[in-house]
Structure formats: C-alpha cells, structure tokens
Design goal:
This protein is about 40% helix and about 25% strand. It is an alpha+beta fold and about 550 residues long.
C-alpha cells in the first residue's frame, strides 16, 4: 500500500489531477451506460385515459410490482414492453380500466346493512346508468357515453304516475360521426332496458351539443327510406366487390351502386274472367199444354156456347191440342280479383357502374405497359355483376363494366413523405447506444479477463524452455554474469522470468509467488534437467497440473 502511495506522489499534482478527472469520467460513463442499458423499453399499455382512470390504473400496476411510465398529459400509461401481457392480465383481474359510471359492481361490496331505501334506489339508478353507458360504448365509432335517467315515483294519493325520461350524450371517435340510425338504435336500447320508458321520451345528444334525436322525434318515412337505400347500396357493393376481387385482385376494382326506391304507396285492383271456367248456377224448366175445338157451320147462338151438361148444343168442328216446354240455364263464369299494395321502399331501378384496372406487362425495355382487359372477360364480369344484384331488364336496371387504367398516386402527387435518415437515426440512437455499450462491455471482458486467462493457461500447458548454464555458454554469455534467469515455482508449476542481479542475493532468488528464497544452484540444476530431458519434464509438469 505504501509503495502505491509513493508511486502516486511521484506522479506530481498535475498528473494526479488529470488521472483523477479521467478516472471520475470513466466511472460516470460506466454508471450512465449501465443505467441506460438496463433501462427497459416502454410501450403504451392504454391511451386516451381520463385522469381518474389513469390514476387507478397506475396505482394498481404499482401495487402489482410493475414499473410504470405516464405521459405528460396523463392520458397514456406505459410499461416495459416485455410486461405488457402480464400487466393487461393484472388490470383485467382488477376490473380496470373503467370509463364512465360504475355498473352493477356497486352492489358487490355493499352488504346492505345500514343502508336505507333511498340509498338503495340511488345505487340502483347509478348502476343502471353505468351499464347502459358501457353497452353504448360497444357500438362502432362511439368512444364515450353518459346516460341520465329520470325515474320519478308516484306521489301519495295521486291517480297518475309520471312518465320516466332519459337523455344520452355521445362522444364519437376521431374521424367518425354518430348517424341518425345509430341514435335510433341507442334510443331503442335504452327504452328496452328501462321499465315503462317510451322511446319518444329519450333525447340523444352529441358531444358537440348537437341534438341528434329530440323527444317525440320519431323516425319519418323519408329517413326510413334513406336508411333502406343506403343499406341496399352497401350490401350490393360488398357483394360485387367480393366476387370481383377473386378475379381482378383486391384494390383493382371500384364499384358504385345506385338504388332508386319508390316513395309512394299505391293500390292496384284487377279482375279477370275466364270463359273456360263455366259453372251452372241455376236451371229453370217450364212446360205448357192446351186443347181447343173450333166451332162448325152451325148457327150462332147461346146454345152453341153452353156446355153439354147444361143443355148446350154439341159443337162440331176441328179439335186442336198444344204442348210447350221451356228450359232456362244460368251459368257463372270464373273470375279472379287481384289487389296489389305497393308500400314505399320497393326497388324501382338499380344502376351499377364497375371500373376495373387492366393488366400490366413488361415491354422489351423492362417498363410496365398497361393493357386493358379484353371484351370477353368484361362480358363475363358483367354477367357476374348482374347475378349478384338480381338484374331485372323489365325494371330498367343497368350494369356497366369498363376496364381503364387507375391513376397512380405516386405519379400524381409524388412519393409519400417518409422519415428522413436523420430522423430515423435520432429515433434509433438509444438502441444503437445500448448495443455499442453492450459490445464494449463484452470486448472489455474478453480483453481484460478472458485473454490473460487463456494466455496463462497456454503457458502452463506449454512452458517455454529454461535458460541454463549450458545454454548461456552456448550463446557466448558467461554463466556468472547477471542476466535473466528462470525461476520455477515447483509447487505452483509456473515459470517466472526475473532479473538475477536485482532481486535476491548471489546464491538465492526471491520470487513473489513463493514464500522464502530459492537456491540459484537448484534453479540451474532444474534448468539443466529440463534441457537434457524435456519430454519427461513436460510429462511431470502436466501430471502436477492434473493433480492440482
């Protein structure tokens, strides 16, 4: 220790200050590098959280033993990238994160003891509002929702009971908007979940203050007609796109469908008669018979007109008898009475326009050349489109399929703006520094630890030949002249070269790894033995190493 202090004092003040500064800088660099290398890479776990939800999430994660990082605005909570899955499972076990009012879990912790009827009604109302808000948030495009229910109670001695009402506030996601159809669905959901709540008593508002559905604002026939038109056009477009993508590829077709619907209600009555369908309705038969005798050439008087029984004079003349039969048959002719009622919303006409991209081939120069699709293929595609939409020529439907070259966005607006090399490099600096520092640590370990260990191991396995007196005389050096002699630690098996004129006396040699002095004569004899019998000496040394 004293020798170390003497060496430091011999350096001088300036060198000591410089050496201390360099050492401090190296220590700080090592500490900063180690801390920076061991710092994990954080990835967002949840974003766009409210302050209350973010606080509950951070508290739960810290209690579970996770390292948490929160953004400046408090809306993004991040954890180490390798802990994302476990953190999500821990939060799911705790029922987090939750937005809006709590639901029926309010009754999980309350036993009901010491709670009056009023508090129970309030908790039931809060739970119902929270559950409805959660259900509304599951609709596509809706980020958050709040539900306010008014459930008045019937007053004492009152003949009527006030009707309940509700209001819903919706905040849509960025880039989306809440349509009237979604508002009607939300109204139906709330009306179905609350007893005795009429749909007309529900108001739906947007987060911007716009009234989407007011009270008693029922869906008009015009809005219903427009909703049906949009639904039909979307369904037909999806059907056409799915069948065309299998042939021309995804993104190589554009489909536009227009459906005209009837907006009037019409009733058509028609009656037809079929002469072939005759049915006898009634039959009337009438028979008549008569008999008379014309008078002869006798005198005209009263006696001729009296019957024979009354003394009349028998008439002599021609006797006439008549007989008549009449038959009347009444028939019913078969008839068909048809009444057709056409409600608004029936398909009146369908128009479909399809644009498909062509085929690109390489020319002799290696450039892409556009080739439109042939007429036969377009006709087959047109038949597929007609079958997909239910084409009806009598209704006036039209289908048009054309093959034209699509406009290349790169050619019109240029290449998309991407990250420059400098920005990518700045983003990758932490990763690069971690890698460089890790490589530096590995290189330092290899150079300062592994390399000397391998060198010592190689020296032990293959020791260099010792310089004995015979070798010194062969080299022309007197044996008694102070030179580099070899001293061997017999117990340790290591060969140490040291100056004979500086350490120890003329008859002994002092070696730092050996307690006491070593006789120079013994070293010379051992060196001579090594020179004379190198193989036996090497086997002996290897045996010592194995035994050690």
């Amino acid at each position: 220790m004293q020798a170390l202090l003497d060496n430091l004092n011999a350096l001088g003040r300036r060198r000591l200050i410089f050496l201390g500064g360099v050492g401090f800088a190296l220590v700080m660099a090592v500490l900063l590098g180690v801390s920076y290398t061991l710092t994990p890479t954080y990835a967002p776990l949840y974003s766009e959280l409210s302050p209350a939800s973010a606080s509950r999430v951070v508290s739960s994660l810290e209690q579970a033993g996770f390292r948490v990082s929160v953004s400046r605005d408090g809306s993004v909570v991040s954890v180490p990238q390798e802990d994302i899955a476990r953190a999500r499972m821990a939060l799911a076990d705790a029922g987090l994160p939750t937005e809006g009012s709590p639901g029926w879990e309010l009754f999980d912790t309350n036993t009901g003891l010491g709670m009056n009827t009023f508090l129970q009604r309030v908790n039931r109302l809060r739970a119902l509002e929270g559950e409805l808000a959660r259900s509304i948030q599951t609709i596509d495009g809706i980020e958050a929702a709040r539900v306010h229910l008014v459930l008045p109670e019937r007053e004492a001695f009152s003949r009527t009971r006030p009707e309940p009402s509700a209001s819903v506030i919706i905040r849509s996601r960025l880039g989306d908007s809440v349509s009237r159809r979604q508002a009607i669905a939300i109204r139906a959901l709330v009306a179905s979940a609350v007893p005795d709540l009429a749909p007309g008593r529900i108001t739906v508002l947007s987060a911007t203050g716009e009234t989407i559905l007011a009270e008693d604002d029922q869906e008009t026939p015009a809005s219903m007609l427009q909703s049906r038109k949009v639904a039909l056009e979307e369904r037909m477009s999806e059907n056409i796109m799915s069948i065309l993508s299998a042939r021309v590829g995804t993104g190589n077709a554009r489909v536009q469908v227009n459906v005209d619907l009837t907006s009037t209600r019409s009733i058509t009555r028609s009656e037809t008669f079929d002469p072939e369908q005759q049915v006898v309705r009634s039959t009337e038969t009438r028979e008549e018979s008569g008999r008379d005798q014309r008078p002869g050439s006798q005198e005209v008087g009263v006696g001729s007109n009296l019957p024979d029984d009354f003394g009349g004079t028998a008439a002599t003349g021609e006797l006439n008898e008549t007989q008549r039969t009449d038959e009347i048959v009444n028939y019913e002719i078969g008839s068909t009475l048809t009444e057709m009622v056409s409600e608004p919303g029936a398909i009146e006409r369908i128009s479909v326009a399809v644009l498909v991209d062509g085929i690109y081939t390489e020319d002799a120069a290696g450039e892409l050349v556009f080739v439109p699709r042939d007429e036969a293929e377009l006709n087959r595609l047109e038949e597929l489109v007609r079958a997909a939409v239910g084409f009806n020529a009598q209704r006036g439907d039209t289908v048009s399929v054309e093959s034209l070259q699509f406009v290349d966005i790169v050619q019109t607006v240029g290449d998309p703006v991407g990250s420059s090399f400098s920005s990518i490099l700045m983003q990758s600096v932490p990763t690069i520094l971690r890698g460089v520092f890790a490589l530096a640590i590995v290189a330092a370990v290899l150079s300062l630890g592994l390399r000397p260990a391998l060198k010592i191991l190689a020296t032990r396995l293959d020791p260099p030949p010792a310089s004995g007196p015979a070798q010194l005389e062969a080299d022309g050096v007197p044996p008694n002249r102070p030179q580099i002699a070899s001293a061997e630690n017999v117990m340790g098996g290591a060969t140490v070269l040291m100056p004979s004129g500086e350490i120890g006396s003329s008859d002994t040699i002092r070696v730092s790894s050996v307690v006491g002095d070593i006789s120079r004569q013994s070293v010379r004899q051992a060196s001579a033995l090594v020179i004379q019998q190198p193989d036996e000496t090497l086997r002996t040394v290897k045996g010592w190493l194995v035994a050690k």
